[in-house]
Amino acid sequence: MSARHHSHLTSAGLLRRQFLAAPVASILLALLVLAGALLATAVPRAIAAMHTAALGERLAEYPARELDVLNSTRAQPGLGPSAGGTTLPDGVDEVWGAHEEHLFDIRARMPGPLAAVTGDPLTVLFSGPSDARPEGAAAGGISYQLFTGFDPRLREHVTLTSGEWPEVLVGSAPPPPEVDDGFAAPPVPTPTDEPIEIVFADPVAEEMGWELGEVRTLAVGAEPQGVRLVGTFDAVDPSDGFWTHVPVALEPSVAFSAAGDLRITGLGFADPNSWAAYVQTQPQSTMDSWFPTLTDRVRADESAELRAAVDEFTSRAYQLGTGFGDFAFSPVGEVTFSSGLSDALESAAITAGATDAVLATIASGPIGVMVAVLLLGARVVFERRRSGLELAAARGASDGRLRGILGLEGVVIGVPAAVVGGALGTLIVPVDAGWGAWIIAAVFALTPAALLVASVPALSPLRRARADVQVRGGARHRWVAEAAVAVVAITAVALLLRRGLATSAAEVGVDPLLAAVPLLLSLLVCLVVLRLYPLPLAALVRRNSRRSDLVPFLGSARALRDPSAGIVPVLTVVVGVSVAVFSAVLLGTVQTGVERAADARVGADAAVTGTPFTLEQQAAFAEVTGVEATAPVYSTAPSTIEIDGRVRTTTLIVVDADEMRRVQAGRVNATPLPDELVGGSGVDGDPASPVPVVISQAVADSIEGADSVELDGEEFDVLAVVDGRTAYSPRASWVLMDRSHAARFVDSFVPRTVLVRFAPDADADAVTDSLVEIAGPNATVVTPAMVLDGLRGVSTTSGLVLALVAAIVLSSLLTALAIVLTLVVGRPARDRLLPLLATLGLRRRGERALVAWEIGPVVVVALVAGALLGAALPYVVVQGVDLRSFTGEDAQPSVVFDPALIAAVLAGAAVVTAAAVLLASRIGGDGNASRALRAEEEG
């Protein structure tokens, strides 16, 4: 019996008894820790997954040829078998084996991060284009141009649909003299009188009008070469990046020359070993040897190492062949590789840095609220334990023992909850994000113990003081602390505004200055609220003192003399409301920016893009019911600007200014087309006169300060400068001119894009369907609504929207919880006061009103201050973070207020706050007068 009694006095026994005496507070604190650990582990993983998805989307914008690790050369492959064998088909190794073996040797020297995301090497060689006119065809009319391709792995990429595979044609000749350099000279092939056999993709054969078995003669080199079509094929995978290395292989090119002649270009594959004979005709050829980039293996968190590996690999030269050059056949020698992967990764890293900066700015507020709520939760637990621990202290328990009891309870509360929360976070988002998140979860696990242990000095009843008659000796220290907070907050804002947009986020990570500014400003506003709200409240007390009703006077007086809302709950309300309003404003800004970007990219009610459109198609577009006007973009050809002898590439855009003005009339983001573009200087009859043009800001920056500037050798006169892209071309560097001046710059006016304006009462869906039918299966019709859906679906944009919505919801819930906990902390004082008032006739409704008065005035003021701060924060944050990666615009978006969204957020905050006060007022309050009289008075 004594042993059992003694067990109740041990630390474990006391801990169990005090937990069972008031478990709700400890459970609530455990749930807060669980939520914090869950967010600490899940959010970084979600961000990592978002970055990887965004990187995949960014890489998908590039053709595979730009991302592959590529060497493109005019030299030919070194012919000969491999030394150790390859996986090439039987017979092909005899000609291509040595070349592929060299590529595998080069791959073995590739840095690990790059080798992990690239596949086995591939090679394709194509020659031409060469004129392949049918026998007996008259001069003029349709021109047929043929590329001839040689792929040593052809049968892995295509499936035969008709006819047969091409056969190999190989001549022979004595080898040239050997060169004593350690390499054996390759055999020199000789041409053959037999036609080379090729296969076409079905659409190419149909457009070229080339029948199976038909022979055409190519005018190449000194000896014409016959070519026979023996079969047709389909691609095994038309989306394979291989096809970006081979021009016009699956679909022919159909274009018109300036003279109006139709030119059809296609590529046919010969047997890969036929190159040994074909080379002697000395056609112009290009050989691509590359290591395919496997974009599905590229991860955002490894992009920095991968960029370094790409730069290292592409900075070196490698031996790809013998490099003999003293005879007609000149094989490849030492080469270097290039890849656009590094630029793509850098661009994605910049976007990821901007995303992290915005998310850190958004998260700083809820993090502050979470910390404040944890403080309140720990205080609630402490207040529930105070009486028992004070009794233990009065009976001689040391501070160390009391700290041990509280610390042990804090560990029991925090550690299991953090483990469960962290495990849930990893299960919800199964993405590897490193161990950093677990460090934060560990901090959450130990926070309850630290906060409870820190409360031990306040356990002695002799140290209690009435909150409404506290000694003012600490006023000087309070002023110093508040002044320090003000200086730090104002300095941070000034530095942020002075610095401008953060451009190094991709290199240095989250900007701590930008992330801290919202929380610092919230803390400053909180201190201002605490300093100023007693002034109107004192006036309200004086006014209520003249009323006969007790509740308003007593409630306002208690709120003034003994406020439950100290800095922690006020900070919670200010931060919560400001974050909610700030998130709502930022959400409206991003959504409006996305809508503007979608409209600017299309440039009209619809844009038809695809293969070159014939005059008949252009006329049919204009005749569709519901179409008010059309405007073709006649050319978007590569061009060069010579700047003081230096050459810079750009895109020359040719439009009919009058047509385009009719289509884009009234559009806010339309590219300006001055009247001087048409006629005036630069008329074709006066070649010495400068050509009037509109240029992009990128071109304007490049020619600024130059003494001599020419466009394809011609002078030009700049009428306007546009910052960003146009609907006519996705390129940032461009020069635009009217069609009336373009004949000396381009030789073809065949549009691949036609902008369409709908009539006011048109059925947009019906018009779009008609345009699709006319444009054909190889063209697309897009509208601003379609582009808007695509932009909203981008991982960074959708992730930001989700984060903003989550910030609004989380901040509102934490604010409500903070108010509830604040009133729970003040419950002991109410338990002493309310029963006494009840004996004097105070009804239950009046008791709830007193509870509302306890925190209501400061909460109302904090709500107003938080709303004003939330409306001001976007103007500060937008100065330091680049939102263009979210909106898709070329310029930083301006702040946009969505009245409906902001009103909904404020109404939600008010409802949540009122509900929290109502809930807290219903907690407890069941005490009676006798118990209140027996309770210990403060002081």
From TrEMBL:
Record-linked Pfam families: FtsX
Q: What is its main location?
A: membrane
Q: Which UniProt keywords apply?
A: Cell membrane, Membrane, Transmembrane, Transmembrane helix
Give the record's membrane topology: Multi-pass membrane protein
Keyword RNA-binding applies? no
Q: What is this protein called?
A: ABC3 transporter permease C-terminal domain-containing protein
Query: What subcellular compartments does it reside in?
Result: Cell membrane
Matching InterPro entries: ABC3_permease_C (IPR003838), Macrolide_Exporter_MacB (IPR050250), TAT_signal (IPR006311)
What the record says about family reads: Belongs to the ABC-4 integral membrane protein family.
Ranges that cross the membrane: 357-382, 402-429, 435-459, 479-501, 513-533, 566-587, 800-825, 850-876, 896-921
Record organism: Agromyces neolithicus
Report the residue ranges that make up the ABC3 transporter permease C-terminal domain in this protein.
806-922
